[in-house]
Amino acid sequence: MPHIPGALTASTQLPQFLLDHEIEQNRGGSASIIVTQPRRVAAIGVASRVANERMEDIDKNVGTVGYAIRGERRSGPQTKLLFCTTGVVLRRLGSGDPDLEGVSHVVVDEAHERGVDTDLLICLLRDLLERNKTIKVSTSCCGGSRLTPGHPHVCDHQRYVWLSDERIKLTFVQSRSSSVSHYKDPSASL
Fold it and tell me: How many whole angstroms separate alpha carbon 37 and alpha carbon 26?
């Protein structure tokens, strides 16, 4: 089995896991997952990789995977996974869509790169969760050994992700598979 770096695995697999889960629950048609990346190159690169893993070619035909960066957008009506820069989401929140209507999930990837944009986005999403009870928000970051709600960390090849008030433990076995266990108490000590 090839070695896949943890950050790349989380960046490419977590959004696909969420979409596949929504499809299995017969909610695929209404799924709209935004995945933020701190840089333009990362948004395009991760979107391209995920599209390739889903047997799509983002350069030729827009399918379920797309991307949006300042000045460029590759998405369409059937796009379910939208990779974009943090700034794109901040602009959307600040220009008439403060509740991210129609979005089912937001994944703030690379949240450990704590820039002003990421910190502001996390604060705005925290406030959004009070108004929009249907959206699920998670952050993904690497490093550290303490787990706190809203700030999951990689620990012993496992990634803990907080989706609003429900914690899901993901163990990546290969690049395309994961096992899932649900825990109802997000404040439980690990």
Answer: 28
